[in-house]
Write a structure and sequence with these properties.
The complex is a heterodimer of chains A (267) and B (363). Chain A is built from 11 helices and no strands. Chain A has 267 residues and is mostly helical. In chain A, helix 6 packs across helix 8 and helix 8 packs antiparallel against helix 11. The two termini of chain A are 41 Å apart. With 363 residues, chain B is of the alpha+beta class. Chain B is built from 8 helices and 20 strands. The longest helix of chain B is centred in the middle third of the chain and has 18 residues. Chain B is elongated and about 75 Å long. Classes of the chains: A mainly alpha (267), B alpha+beta (363).
């Protein structure tokens, strides 16, 4: 009995330490973003918002934030749309080479990012489209669609095969059945996919760095700031990026868990 | 009553190489309760889905009130269905589920609501109108599915094994609800089931299907007493099937040489049977008698007891004749009162020739 408790206590400490180890750098970054001193040393100086003020006044940072927001929202919409279409095709139809179709649809995340980024850059310069905002959007959509598809596919698999025919049977055309039954059923997964793909796009550095040209996204400008000199502004931007991403991921996670506990359709 | 509503005309349905329905012709009358019954894979559900437009026939035509349905899309047909899985919409509440069909037909919101509540009331589930369908019990969900299908007041309702997921006592209650509704509304019910008790309890006519073909169509009593062929006789159960060559004809009876001995069976009006024919006939298990002395007349087979099944006032005995032919006898418990089954040295199974029924297909 006592040894059980000891083991449990030990495991809890272990988990806490693990989380501390993983999040310590981010935590440090958040702490130093409010520190008045230029160099990250201990003891800390006084509390200060000067680095936040500095980035708010920096037009390059504003441009990057605007680009990142446009890119991540567009990517989320496009990737979720493509992901939904792919997942629905898989749910609804059986056809030859379906295995190959699914494998192809899920392929992008298995390619090393650098290879994908280089290939994208080469392709975009060839067709004269490198350095545009929409070239980042296309590249990110390629990267994110498989995630959206996987999430939505999981949800559609929980759908009673008769649900859509039941809608047709009650007078809904195929399009109305889609709007009245399939989309409402998949709604939690769709919102979850939107959040997750937005977060992935917002965070993504390698592909954005290769493809973005002058339209830098936030991760790209962070790298530029740190390569130049030691500038605590980076901590402030980092905090902002971390909070944005973690919020999106947590929303996605809550939606996924809520629908798991609710369990789709009853048998 | 006998006006024809739906006609299946030489309908064939193939899935690739596999023929789920082979050359089916069937007339469904207006206002009747028709049950399609058969073992799984016999094509009964495919038949129902073709009527709803969810499958298209590979050959043949299906008409409703004389109009071909082949080019009518599922959502343009007025053939609502109650699904085996119920297929209620989990993201809508009870009333929204029932309103669905009306909404698709463009009925205004307040009219929709009135009619949906009317039906919920009629089926005794008005108090659950705003509940999520997942919070309801099996029987309540069943009623929601019924209300959802009936709210558009169709002339035909399709039911695909709707009671198979319910507990036994609920099945009996829902059978009552269904037959009452069908009589009150006067609409046609087409009911698919593999359960003989459901089909026989509710249907005006039963269609027995086997392997994509219709084996027999008839009133429950006719199917039970006069099965057309060996498949129906076996599927309906509680029958003893005997086969053999006709030795001779005596007045109205044929004397048949079966493995269990020479037995007489009434040929009735049928004068196509002659000496030397191979025929099969059935004797329902509840039409035989058991005695310790051989009876004065009629058929008698000496048998020995293998096992018994005792359900309240009815006893089913499993018996065997000397040659190994198995017999079933379904008797009232009080009929056995003066026979000591365990101690009896000799038992005779007997029945009059008129209780036998010759299968139409002969074999």
């Amino acid at each position: 009995m006592t040894s059980d408790r000891a083991v449990r206590w030990f495991l809890r400490c272990y988990l806490a330490l693990l989380f501390l180890f993983v999040f310590a750098p981010i935590l440090a970054s958040v702490v130093f973003s409010f520190n008045s001193q230029r160099f990250p040393t201990i003891p800390l100086g006084s509390f200060s918002l000067q680095w936040y003020e500095a980035i708010l006044e920096d037009p390059d940072v504003w441009d990057a934030v605007r680009t990142s927001i446009i890119v991540s929202i567009s990517t989320a919409c496009l990737a979720t749309f493509i992901g939904f279409c792919t997942a629905y095709t898989d749910y609804r139809y059986g056809f030859r080479f379906k295995g190959a179709y699914l494998a192809l649809a899920l392929l992008p995340p298995t390619i090393p990012l650098i290879i994908l980024a280089l290939a994208m850059l080469a392709w975009f310069s060839r067709i004269g489209a490198s350095g545009q905002v929409w070239s980042i959007i296309i590249a990110h959509t390629v990267l994110c669609s498989p995630f959206a598809m996987a999430i939505i596919r999981l949800r559609l698999q929980q759908m009673d095969r008769n649900l859509e025919p039941a809608a047709w049977n009650l007078g809904a055309s195929e399009w109305r059945g889609m709007g009245q039954v399939v989309l409402p059923f998949a709604r939690p997964a769709i919102i979850s996919a939107l959040c997750l793909t937005a977060a992935v796009s917002f965070d993504e550095f390698a592909v954005a760095w290769f493809v973005s040209g002058l339209n830098k996204t936030v991760p790209v400008i962070i790298l530029e700031i740190v390569t130049g000199n030691i500038d605590p502004q980076v901590n402030a931007i980092g905090t902002f990026v971390f909070i944005t991403s973690i919020t999106l991921v947590v929303i996605a996670q809550i939606l996924i868990m809520a629908r798991e506990s609710k369990g789709g359709t009853a048998p | 009553m006998s006006e024809v509503l739906v006609v299946f005309d030489d309908v064939v349905k193939r899935f690739g190489e596999f023929a789920a329905v082979k050359r089916m012709s069937l007339e469904i009358r207006r206002g009747e309760f028709l049950a399609l019954m058969g073992p799984s894979g016999c094509g009964k559900t495919t038949t129902l889905r073709m009527l709803a437009g969810l499958e298209l026939p590979s050959e043949g035509d299906i008409t409703l009130e004389g109009q071909s349905l082949l080019s009518v899309r599922p959502h343009e047909r007025d053939t609502p269905m109650v699904w085996q899985s119920l297929a209620l919409f989990p993201f809508l509440d009870v009333r929204e589920n029932v309103e669905f069909g009306l909404k698709m037909r463009g009925v205004a919101a307040d009219e929709r609501r009135r009619r949906a509540e009317d039906w919920l009331d009629r089926l005794g589930i008005a108090e659950f109108a705003r509940r999520n369908v997942e919070q309801l019990s099996g029987g309540q969900r069943q009623r929601v599915a019924l209300a959802r299908a009936l709210v558009t007041e169709p002339q035909i309702l399709l039911l695909d094994e709707p009671l198979s997921a319910l507990d036994a006592h609920l099945v009996i209650r829902m059978q009552g609800v269904l037959t009452r509704l069908q009589r009150e509304l006067g609409i046609t019910f087409v009911y698919v089931t593999h359960s003989q008790s459901e089909a026989f309890a509710m249907a005006d006519r039963v269609v027995i299907m086997s392997d994509g073909e219709i084996s027999q169509i008839g009133a429950p009593r006719d199917i039970y007493r006069t099965p057309a062929n060996r498949f129906v006789a076996e599927f309906v159960g509680r029958n003893n099937i005997l086969s053999g060559k006709v030795k001779r004809l005596e007045q109205n009876d044929a004397v048949v040489a079966t493995p269990a001995g020479a037995l007489k069976v009434s040929v009735g009006e049928d004068n196509s049977i002659s000496e030397g024919d191979e025929i099969s006939f059935v004797i329902a298990a509840d039409l035989v008698r058991l005695s310790q002395e051989p009876p004065a007349e009629g058929n008698a087979v000496p048998v020995s007891l293998i096992s018994e099944e005792f359900i309240g006032s009815v006893v089913t005995l499993f018996l065997e004749s000397d040659d190994g032919t198995e017999f079933r006898a379904q008797l009232q418990e009080r009929e056995l009162a003066d026979i000591d089954l365990k101690a009896a040295k000799e038992l005779y199974l007997s029945w009059p020739p008129a209780s036998g029924h010759i299968l139409v297909d002969r074999i």
